[in-house]
Specification:
single chain, mainly alpha, three-stranded antiparallel beta sheet, 2% strand, disordered N terminus
Length: 447
């Protein structure tokens, strides 16, 4: 170390030895470190090589590639320098112009997945519903057409764009196209900023409102069945969908919802493992397995037999002053079956009345009986429990003398009302008994 003022182990000498060690471990510096960067594949197509330039022409832009550098001389790494290789690597890209995404891969490479027909129908329904809501406000005088002319024009363009992407099955697409052509023919939709007299504006608003309502209904006829089937597929047997409550936002008019519900109930094989009850507005799900449906029917029969056995055993209770005696078994069983008949007649009358109000005959087949039993097994078991309770209440309240077959039939026909009256009577008796007990406890200390 002669001729040097640096002591052994000084920082500069120690840093130089570290760089020498790194340089010995590094492969030959050709090309220089920081410039020979291998292209990293990220799953994108590489841009094609630029065409050769004419003689004398200068490129307008240069993008550094492997082994190249931007403006200025390429930085070289000196093994004896204290500058770290990472600093040189950053410096090699500092002066390079930014690389645009369009230069890495063409825009067509990033394809946006097209919307499905169902998504397009949902978007179309939303656009038409919002436009109809605004038109209703303009008709009611809550908004001015001139203030929303730009929105109406934009809705016109958006609906037209969505109509070009609709691919509905059957004649549904043709109906939608006809309704849209009728709306486009309305002057108010084409040029909402044009001043017209009030009578003509109300006439145009009425035409658009009617066309929008029919378009929303037609869209729901195409989308709601598929949506209901998806829910039924993931639901257990006996699950019910409150149709009017679920689709009140998509179809604000109850008449339109009832029309869609009747369509679901009458169209064969439209609902998969589902039955629509137009009277209650519920859609029930039944088990797809025939074995499970048969098991539900057997369960219903077993419950009826078990309830009959319970009535028989009640008559055999050896308790003093018990209302039922072993000799009352025949009367109890006759009242039990009469009550069940009254219950079935009540259900049939309700279905007939509903069909008459809707102006259509009752549509039911024997093959659907097992579907109905499986779908409504919970409600059927609850009705049997109420019938058993009503039979016992009839004997306990009126005695065997008043528990005739006719009275039992009437109780079964109005079972819900009878159970409610019986419950109210029990509550009144319990309240009276509690009042007596409370009064007795209040007097006892003074005595």
């Amino acid at each position: 170390m002669a001729g040097s003022n640096e002591k052994p182990g000084s920082p500069s000498q120690e840093g130089s030895s570290i760089h020498d060690h790194i340089a010995a471990l590094r492969p030959p510096p050709d090309p220089p470190l920081g410039l020979a960067l291998a292209p990293v594949s990220v799953g994108l197509p590489q841009p094609p090589a630029p065409p050769p330039l004419p003689a004398g022409a200068t490129p307008s832009r240069s993008i550094p590639r492997a082994g190249e550098h931007g403006p200025g001389p390429a930085p070289q790494h000196d093994p004896g320098s204290t500058t770290s290789p990472l600093t040189l690597l950053r410096a090699s890209f500092a002066d390079a112009p930014p690389l645009l995404l369009s230069e890495v891969a063409p825009a067509a490479t990033f394809n946006i997945p097209p919307r499905s027909p169902r998504e397009a129908l949902h978007e179309l329904r939303a656009e038409v519903s919002d436009l109809r809501d605004l038109l209703c406000k303009i008709t009611a005088g809550q908004a001015h057409l001139s203030a929303y002319a730009e929105y109406v024009q934009k809705a016109h363009r958006d609906i037209g764009t969505l109509m070009r992407t609709i691919d509905a099955p059957g004649e549904g697409q043709r109906h939608l196209q006809n309704l849209w052509e009728r709306m486009v023919a309305c002057p108010l939709l084409r040029s909402p900023g044009t001043e017209v007299d009030a009578q003509q504006q109300l006439h145009d608003l009425a035409i658009l409102d009617e066309a929008c309502g029919k378009m929303v209904l037609q869209i729901c006829l195409l989308t709601i069945p598929q949506q209901v089937n998806e829910w039924l597929q993931n639901a257990p047997a006996g699950y019910c969908i409150p149709f009017h409550r679920v689709f009140a936002e998509e179809l604000p008019e109850k008449e339109d919802r009832q029309r869609v519900l009747c369509y679901l109930a009458t169209e064969p094989h439209l609902l998969k493992c589902g039955i629509a009850d137009t009277a209650s507005g519920l859609i029930y799900r039944y088990a797809p397995s025939a074995l499970m449906r048969a098991a539900s029917l057997l369960l219903l029969g077993f419950t009826l037999c078990a309830s009959t056995a319970v009535l028989f055993l009640v008559c055999q209770v050896p308790i003093a002053r018990w209302p039922l005696q072993p000799g009352d078994v025949s009367a109890v069983l006759v009242s039990w079956f009469a009550l069940l008949i009254g219950l079935l007649v009540h259900v049939g009358v309700d279905m007939t009345k509903w069909n008459q109000t809707q102006g259509r005959p009752a549509i039911s087949t024997l093959s659907d009986s097992m579907h109905w039993v499986n779908a409504r097994i919970g409600g059927a078991l609850f009705k049997i429990a109420l019938a058993l309770f009503g039979t016992l209440a009839l004997f306990f309240l009126g005695g065997p003398e008043k528990a005739t077959a006719l009275n039992a039939f009437l109780v079964g026909y109005s079972l819900d009302s009878f159970v409610g009256l019986f419950g109210a009577s029990i509550e009144q008796r319990a309240a009276a008994q509690i009042a007596v007990l409370t009064r007795g406890r209040a007097i006892a200390p003074g005595g």
